[in-house]
Structure formats: C-alpha cells, structure tokens
Write a structure and sequence with these properties.
It contains 8 helices and no strands. With 157 residues, it is mostly helical. Helix 2 runs antiparallel to helix 3 (32-54), helix 3 (32-54) packs antiparallel against helix 7 and helix 3 (32-54) crosses helix 8 (140-156).
C-alpha cells in the first residue's frame, strides 16, 4: 500500500479521505453500482473511526489498542459483522460514558467521549441490521455485497 495512503488515514479528516476515495473511483471508471456503495460504506466506517483516532482510542475487532488508523485497521472494520459489532460496542460505550468491550486500560476507557452513531446507524439500517437486538442476524446477501465493496476499496487504496 502506498505511503500516502497511510498518511491519509493517520492525519486527514473524513471528508478529505472520502474525496480521495471518490476521485479514485472516477479515475478507475468503476461501475456506478460500486460508486453508490463504496462512498457511503467508507463514510459509515470513518464516521466512528476518525473520532476514535482523534481521541487516541482506536482498537481492532479483537478489542486490542491500535496506535494509528491504518488502511489495514480500516479493512478489519470493513467486515460487515465486525462493523455491526463496532456499532453495538460504541452504543454501549455511549450509554456507559466510557469505552466498553475492549482490552484498553480502565484509565484509557474513561477518556472516551460520546460518538455520534447516526451515520453508521443509518447505513446499517439500510442493510437490515437490527440496531435494537445485537443477536439478530442480517441477510447473508448483505454480507456478501459488503465483501465486494471491501474488495473495491482495497483496489482503490
């Protein structure tokens, strides 16, 4: 992966990252089908990862602290099951007013500041993810679609 991509994820705001992804989509003449999926999906993920990055509270799907937002960490969260888990983790964290379900120290978790989940929640709802009951599954077709979306994003970056 290009060094510029790492710097992009480590330092830039969500809008800048989305503009670069959108520009790459246009440059590569990706189908409008993918364009309509890739940008909103990236926005949903970044809407929560950027605030975690900015508060130095990034973690991976296993709950382990991550020092930097990297393309690899972004791709770990782009797994649709992982993204659903992240949404519920942050919802519980917002309710508890401290970061939940991670391996970060109590001191680090206490630094958590509420994250707006509206973008992520709207995105997940669009793909039949039940945001009230974490145990309910979503259609496998939606998981498969998002595997394709992740692959397109990987090819762009």
């Amino acid at each position: 992966m290009k060094q510029e991509t790492y710097k992009l994820f480590q330092t830039q705001d969500m809008q800048t990252i989305l503009q670069i992804i959108e520009k790459e989509l246009q440059t590569r003449n990706e189908s409008p089908f993918w364009h309509d999926k890739v940008v909103p999906f990236s926005e949903a993920i970044l809407s929560v990862l950027i605030p975690l990055r900015d508060n130095n509270l990034l973690f991976d799907p296993q709950g382990t602290y991550q020092k930097e937002l990297t393309p690899e960490l972004f791709f770990e969260w782009s797994d649709f099951v992982s993204l659903k888990m992240l949404a519920f983790t942050l919802q519980h964290s917002n309710n508890a007013k401290k970061l939940q379900r991670t391996k970060l120290t109590e001191e680090e978790c206490a630094k958590y500041q509420e994250i707006d989940l509206s973008t992520l929640g709207a995105y997940l709802s669009k793909y039949n993810v039940n945001l009230e009951n974490e145990r309910l599954d979503f259609p496998i077709a939606n998981y498969n679609l998002h595997q394709g979306v992740s692959n397109v994003i990987k090819s762009l970056l």
